[in-house]
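FIELD: query
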Amino acid sequence: MTAVCIRGRGAASASEQAATRDSSSDETLISRIADGDQLAMRKLFARHRVALYRWLLRLVGDEASAEDLLSEVFLDVWQQAASFERRSSVSTWLLAIARYKALSARRRRTEAELDEATVSAVPDIADDPEVVLQKKNRAEAVRQSLACLSPEHREVIDLVYYHGKSLREVAEIVGIKEATVKTRMFYARKRLAELVAKP
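FIELD: result
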């Protein structure tokens, strides 16, 4: 009889733990946000803001713009939570919204701003010997090489390696076929290897 009581308490405890986990899942938070739950919105924001901010920063290259776009993403989430269809994970949905916002912001920039940003991003090839030695650091070489990739190639590398997204999820976020993602990954890796191998 005692064993049954202990087992009963353990089962209740396990089901309570499962209920707690379920109540804080991204999907549950989205449902609660759709009902106007501000606490759920704060939890979702706290959970995803850093990853989304970094993604936006890499896409737009400007901290202030990335902050503004992050606010816009979560405003959209607040307004559109009821339209979330659960065809993908919440993080994939958020990244897709962020990407759309970033691309729209980039299109709004004037040509002069784009040219200035491009010129400032080009590395100075006339580095002194000390800087050349510092650039031998592999992590730095990879970071610089990523900046040299085309936006399309950089985007898929970023989503796969920095956000842990599958090829299927990348295809959904970017709005292209999975086969195209595979092709872009192949050429991006090949180009990265070439760039990192350069002395």
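FIELD: remark
Residues 1-21 have pLDDT under 50 and may be disordered.
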